[in-house]
Design brief:
six-stranded parallel sheet; 9 strands; binds 5'-deoxyadenosine; binds FE2/S2 (inorganic) cluster; TIM Barrel; single chain; about 350 residues; alpha/beta; 15 helices
């Protein structure tokens, strides 16, 4: 089958078999351009020209896990650790709202210092001072905890499965289990959160077939939001000497998922912008419709080092916002108004 025919099929059926996805991932030259252009067209048809901004608040750099790729891993003795206190988190959320953000993303390492009650209290307080959607990105918790967060007012939850290859998952996430991860994602979905998930591109030993399976798993989990980013080696991790992930494969994966889940929200990730100075622009032109600028102060931004070279960490939140707005406008798009709930989610509910 030719790429053109596969794209027609994807457009009409929103489903592809493994070999078709693989051919799209391998597309080059005109075929590759056609894939990205088709995704851009579908993005415009289905979710429009608005690019929604999410204010990212990285509130703790402590993590109990030891993921091989991540700078926050507990074995990284050189990592600079901080925890923001409840009132400070609420204050930053309020400031983000005053700057025009309608969604805040509360992200941290897996840090059990923050109990169920503390997180519920933070969620409730933010809802009292700001009319924002709240997205949590805090990793694995119990069903009861997720339920409590939802009841407290959290709207969305982001947690990538990182890789669907169980052998690689086990290797790069010591002490963790792929099955547990998937259970958590299913609980989150069943509780009525808008579900965001996704994977890393270019982990060592990951094959093209693995990426095909990753794409299929995102579709199976019926994600409302899809986060895909290239792996970037961090010098203080076991994967320090590995090769970085491919920007091109990331763009193609974004494009394919735009075709398979056309109403989803897909960010042009910071990692993409880190590996390529125009990475976020390229993402936004390949199916993405979301950007997640960091709204924390410089002090914290520098310490939350998932990977080195992160863009924007020397910019304060106001400057960052202006910069992103000009990127959006330069692409002929506009900054989204309102909370920008996933249309895919709206359809389900
Ligand atoms: N390179 C790219 N992305 C990374 N993440 C963690 N470490 C790295 C890295 N070295 C991503 C993971 C996680 C998200 C918050 O950051 O996919 O889910
Ligand atoms: Fe932050 Fe450009 S987006 S400075």
């Amino acid at each position: 089958m030719k790429v053109k025919e596969i794209l027609e099929k994807a457009y009409h059926e929103r489903n592809l078999v493994k070999d078709e996805i693989k051919l799209l991932l391998m597309a080059e030259g005109e075929d590759r351009d056609l894939l990205l252009e088709t995704a851009d067209r579908v993005r415009k048809e289905r979710v429009g020209d608005e690019v929604f901004l999410r204010g990212l608040i990285e509130f703790s750099s402590y993590c109990k896990n030891d993921c091989f790729y991540c700078g926050l891993r507990r074995s990284n003795q050189n990592a600079q650790r901080y925890r923001m206190q409840e009132d400070e988190i609420v204050e930053v959320a309020k400031r983000a709202y005053q700057m025009g953000y309608h969604t805040v993303v509360l992200q941290s390492g897996e840090d059990m210092y923050y109990t169920k009650d503390m997180l519920c209290s933070i969620i409730k307080k933010i809802k009292m001072v700001a009319d924002v959607a709240i997205t949590l990105s805090i990793g694995e918790r119990s069903y009861d905890e997720y339920k409590a967060f939802k009841d407290a007012g959290a709207d969305r939850f982001l947690m990538r499965f990182e890789t669907s290859n169980k052998k690689l998952y086990r290797k790069y996430h010591p002490g963790m289990s792929f099955e547990k991860r998937i259970d958590c994602l299913k609980w989150i979905k069943s509780l009525g959160f808008e579900l965001g998930t996704g994977f890393l591109i270019g982990l060592p030993e990951q094959t093209l077939d693995d990426l095909v399976q990753d794409i299929i798993l995102v579709k199976e989990l019926d994600a409302d939001m899809i986060g895909i980013g290239p792996f970037i080696p961090h010098p203080q991790t076991p994967l320090k000497d590995a090769k970085e992930g491919s920007v091109d494969l990331t763009l193609k994966s974004i494009a394919i998922l735009r075709l398979l889940i056309p109403d989803s929200n897909i960010p042009a990730t910071t990692a993409l912008g880190t590996l390529d100075p125009y990475g976020r622009q390229k993402g936004l032109k390949s199916g993405a419709n979301i950007v997640m600028p960091n709204v924390n102060s410089l002090e914290y931004k520098l310490k939350y080092e998932l990977y080195p070279g992160k863009i924007c960490i020397n910019e304060d939140a106001t400057k960052c916002r202006g910069c992103i707005e000009s990127i959006i406008v330069s692409l002929g798009r506009k900054v989204g108004q309102g909370k920008g709930q996933s249309r895919h989610y709206k359809k389900d509910s």
